[in-house]
Amino acid sequence: MPVTQQEIFAHLEGAKQIGEFDGSDLVCRLYDNLYGIPIKSVQEIVPLPRVMPLPQLPVTFLGVCLFRENVIPVLNLAHELELTGDPPTPEEWQMVVIDYDNRLCAIAVEDIEEILNYSEADIEPLPSTSEVENELFKGIKSTQIGMVTLLNIDTILEQTQLPERLQISVQQATDATKQETERLALIRVGGIRVGVRIEEIERILRLPEIFPVDDAPACIRGVALSPDADHDNPDEEDYYPVLDMFEILEQAEDDGKRNLILAQTTAIRVGYFTGIVEEICDVSKADIASVPPILQSNQNDYIWGILKLEAELILLLDLNQILYACGLMEE
Fold it and tell me: What is the per-residue pLDDT for 199?
């Protein structure tokens, strides 16, 4: 059942006066600054869940998260406001879900303070602001807890090019779709897990010796010798490129175990340097969400879906598309 605005704001000071003034804003704290977000744009306030960062994501977004069975983008408001500080902490920070002009996103904030009700005449202009800042801010308002900067959330969302809401619910599949499954290999890569269709995999190997290649792109870790080759007298064509999934997915390497995945492709033999393959499982297609448009570009078309598995988000990858992204194949 959707949460009503009365339920959202009932515990906050100033909630009873909503509608009696020209404006009412939700006052949020972000890196020791106070900002006001128009409550008409606020759909819900919840503890910040785990936010999944994604490769080549625009700096205006932190990543995506799960909200009421939907995968939604999380706005990097600190970047828009040119603030610096420690990254958001799940469960300790709050998440403000914004619904504006058929656009749905979330904003991570340190805390929720109160409801600020004000008249337009009470708003003061910001001192010495640029033309760009004037578009982002409506002005400032002095309160008992400090000076609050009132955000023009409409302009902020326009500048971040937030996509129109898509029907990306993981529970929207038809009865027929719910009976369909995908068999996936779930693989640990740094701080995230990814899934690959099992039919795209030829073999899963223990990590072989990888030989570095001079002047190779960062996504290529080196070359390895085919397991079917004559290891005592190999030919040049017995070596195949090994792509570095940590580099491609922008994940820091950890001390965990490694596997090498040989892709099932008719084009070229290629290996993928990954973390450990944790399991192979069948998942319902009803639990797979579409990719929000903020993630779609020529560089990351290899992300074909996002799987919700026990409250965890898992990126679903197309190994063949990674070849195009890394320049090993051409359209």
Answer: 94
